[in-house]
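Hi R.,

As promised on Friday, here is the backbone we talked about, encoded as structure tokens. Could you run it through your design pipeline when you get a chance and send me back a sequence?
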């Protein structure tokens, strides 16, 4: 089962990445733009999920930037045991990931894709040329 240390290792292995604390949680950035972040549920998130009749996830949760609403919808539909969202993220290209349920290879792909989405185009293209 992956954890935040695995996310840290994956994120910091990518070019021009950094780590910072934002709102009391760890965030990984590429040239100052967040691409994955620790996202514990707040009281308001739990209340919103309860109002919607949704399960309240436990364990470590990761926020992951995605390329757009289409990709977000596809991920949410693909595996509700892994991916979910909260009203706070409505209209924002990101999903939440239950780290205890995501496969290690899928986590690596999510982190890389999020990095590619936020990295400057030249940096992303150079990285892709080296990692076909």
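Update: got your reply. Pasting your designed sequence below so it's all in one thread:
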């Amino acid at each position: 089962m992956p954890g935040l240390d695995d996310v840290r290792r994956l994120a910091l292995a990518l070019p021009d990445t950094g780590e910072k604390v934002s709102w009391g949680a760890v965030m990984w950035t590429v040239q100052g733009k967040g691409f994955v972040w620790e996202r514990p549920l707040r009281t308001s998130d739990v209340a919103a999920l309860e109002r919607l009749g949704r399960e309240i996830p436990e364990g470590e949760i990761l926020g992951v930037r995605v390329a757009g609403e289409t990709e977000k919808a596809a991920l949410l539909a693909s595996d509700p045991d892994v991916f979910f969202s909260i009203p706070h993220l409505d209209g924002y290209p990101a999903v939440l990931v239950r780290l205890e349920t995501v496969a290690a290879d899928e986590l690596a792909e999510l982190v890389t894709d999020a990095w590619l989405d936020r990295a400057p185009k030249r940096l992303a293209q150079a990285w892709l040329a080296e990692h076909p």
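One thing I noticed while checking it: The mean pLDDT is 94.

Thanks again,
M.
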